[in-house]
Design brief:
single chain, 103 residues, alpha+beta, Ribosomal Protein L30, Chain: A, 4 helices, 3 strands
Length: 103
């Protein structure tokens, strides 16, 4: 009797086929004339775990291009980190804005 043939094997294959990666969402920072570059870099390092060089590069995109892509994350992570960054900005008096976009 072949142990590989049977309903259990078919069920296992079907379950494996149904597993999907979560959708990814892009976190985008928007430029304004009041939020300091230092604040943006600090948020990128502390909340988004960017190294200083990457944080500076993203900040310069925001400054020069009007927006900078921070990264892509599952929705819950993207939303939580964005909300934390916006709350920190409000606490420090900045009009800083960010968006979460579906990829």
């Amino acid at each position: 009797m072949d142990m590989n043939m049977g309903p259990q094997g078919a069920t296992r294959d079907k379950t494996e086929d149904e597993v999907q990666e979560p959708k990814q969402y892009r976190v985008v920072m928007l430029n304004d004339d009041f939020t300091t570059m230092e604040f943006v870099v600090k948020v990128l390092i502390e909340l988004f775990q960017k190294d200083p060089m990457t944080a500076e590069s993203i900040m310069m995109d925001v400054h020069k291009k009007g927006r900078g892509i921070v990264g892509t994350y599952p929705y819950d992570i993207a939303r939580t980190r964005t909300d934390q960054a916006l709350a920190r900005a409000r606490a420090e008096g900045y009009p800083f804005q960010m968006e979460v976009e579906e990829e």
